[in-house]
């Protein structure tokens, strides 16, 4: 018999604020800011229930109700579910604007220290309210927060007991050509015609922007996509590439290729309105995250995130999506030479000229990350998988970790976190089961831990949980 789970809604979470330190690495700096978080305790066993900490990333945070699988695990384990907004995003703002000077405290090290300070304060409040208990901590994140989750368990091993890293990009890479490669291999699963069609469209627009097509064709492309005369050609071609890449990244490869394969015999100029329609359906209705002139805007807006995230990739991570040399799926306008001038134009050369990817990987370990009780999940059609742990890199030094690679159609970014459905592939179901078994093992208090907390009369572990 299949267990019925409560479907979580945003209103089921209590929004709260927390006073966070601005600079965790200078004890003389007493500045702080208000950080937003949410909590849900409707399933919680306040004696032995674990604490799930869902890490939000590069955007305004909301309780992740569409990523429902962690909630199911939470219900099985009687957890307290917390959601923490990342500094500089949403309502969690240290400064009134996003000047380059003010962005200096936006980095992963400060974000991890935020998490440590937050969890320690929460566990102290729980002890003060409920008294003695055994509450193991699990961090959860997807994509960049997936990396934060793994890095946190590695860097703060006594604060968290386990980490779930979904599509966690733990390897900083300046020129990330494998992103482009995955767009090619994923779309080729629908037939190589789909991949070739994307290449042909990119090449056509490239030629138009270079002035190699009749002037009426050039004018048509610019008018159709609303290109301003001053918009950098690379900025526009980055936007165009993301239309196709975004469909692959978020599990809609088949629907994209169905459309492209149905129109591939038409002249490319007549296909462009269809591409514009796809972009509109994806919500890509402006160039907010692509136009370097717009990225220079330092004005705070609770719903904006592109300037902050561009800062992070320009200073720490790279992950610049450049053409793959063997199977280029994007324009040469956005080759390796595109990025440093972009970073300098947006932030100034003093602040951001090239990301310190070597420093980032040296600090966290890259694919040689060290730690225990970390599960990594990646999917075969996710362009970010090659910046993550697809398989354990070194069995001798990483025996306390496990990597799960999910191979199925449209299995893409953070697919393991999504709410389960009857249409899920067996490989996805098996992967979720494996993740839940690991998390359950890592979060279940031992008899010794229970005896230490409650005495000999209460040494039973929590009731056996249901695993589908």
UniProtKB/TrEMBL annotation:
InterPro entries assigned to the protein according to its UniProt record, in alphabetical order: AB_hydrolase_fold, Peptidase_S28, Ser_carbopepase_S28_SKS
Pfam families: Peptidase_S28
GO molecular function: dipeptidyl-peptidase activity; serine-type exopeptidase activity
Keyword ATP-binding assigned: no
Annotated GO biological process: proteolysis
Keywords: Glycoprotein, Hydrolase, Protease, Signal
Family listed: Belongs to the peptidase S28 family.
Protein name (Swiss-Prot/TrEMBL): Serine carboxypeptidase S28 family protein
Species the sequence originates in: Halteria grandinella
């Amino acid at each position: 018999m299949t267990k019925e789970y409560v479907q979580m809604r945003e209103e089921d979470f209590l929004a709260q604020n927390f006073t966070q330190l601005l600079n965790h690495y200078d004890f003389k700096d007493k500045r702080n800011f208000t950080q937003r978080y949410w909590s849900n305790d409707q399933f919680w066993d306040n004696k032995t229930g674990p604490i799930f900490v869902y890490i939000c990333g590069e955007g305004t945070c909301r309780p992740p109700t569409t990523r429902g699988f962690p909630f199911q695990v939470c219900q099985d384990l009687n957890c307290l579910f917390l959601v923490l907004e990342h500094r500089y995003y949403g309502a969690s703002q240290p400064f009134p604007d996003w000047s380059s000077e003010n962005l200096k405290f936006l980095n992963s090290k400060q974000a991890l220290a935020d998490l440590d300070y937050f969890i320690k304060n929460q566990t102290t409040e729980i002890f003060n309210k409920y008294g003695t208990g055994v509450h193991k901590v699990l961090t959860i994140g997807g994509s960049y927060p997936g990396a934060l989750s793994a890095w946190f368990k590695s860097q703060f091993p006594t604060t968290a007991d386990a980490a779930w890293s979904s599509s966690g990009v733990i390897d900083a890479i300046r020129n990330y050509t494998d992103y482009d490669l995955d767009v090619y291999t994923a779309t080729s699963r629908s037939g190589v015609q789909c991949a070739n069609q994307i290449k042909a469209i990119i090449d056509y627009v490239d030629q138009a922007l270079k002035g190699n097509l009749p002037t009426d064709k050039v004018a048509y492309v610019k008018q159709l996509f609303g290109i301003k005369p001053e918009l950098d050609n690379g900025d526009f071609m980055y936007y165009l590439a993301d239309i196709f890449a975004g469909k692959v990244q978020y599990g809609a490869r088949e629907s994209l290729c169905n459309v492209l394969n149905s129109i591939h015999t038409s002249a490319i100029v007549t296909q462009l309105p269809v591409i514009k329609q796809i972009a509109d359906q994806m919500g890509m209705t402006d160039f907010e995250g692509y136009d370097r002139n717009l990225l220079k805007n330092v004005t705070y807006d609770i719903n904006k995130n592109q300037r902050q995230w561009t800062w992070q990739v320009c200073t720490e991570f790279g992950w610049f999506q450049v053409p793959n040399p063997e199977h280029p799926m994007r324009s040469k306008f956005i080759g390796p030479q595109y990025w440093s001038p972009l970073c300098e134009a947006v932030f100034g050369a003093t602040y951001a000229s090239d990301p310190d990817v070597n420093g980032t990987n040296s600090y966290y370990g890259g694919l040689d990350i060290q730690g225990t009780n970390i599960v990594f999940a990646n999917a075969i059609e996710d362009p970010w998988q090659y910046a993550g742990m697809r398989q354990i890199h070194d069995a001798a030094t990483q025996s306390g970790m496990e990597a799960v690679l999910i191979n199925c159609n449209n299995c893409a970014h953070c697919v393991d976190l999504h709410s389960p459905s009857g249409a899920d592939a067996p490989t996805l179901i098996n992967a979720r089961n494996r993740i839940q078994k690991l998390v359950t093992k890592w979060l279940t208090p031992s008899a010794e831990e229970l005896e230490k907390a409650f005495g000999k009369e209460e040494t039973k572990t929590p009731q056996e949980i249901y695993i589908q």
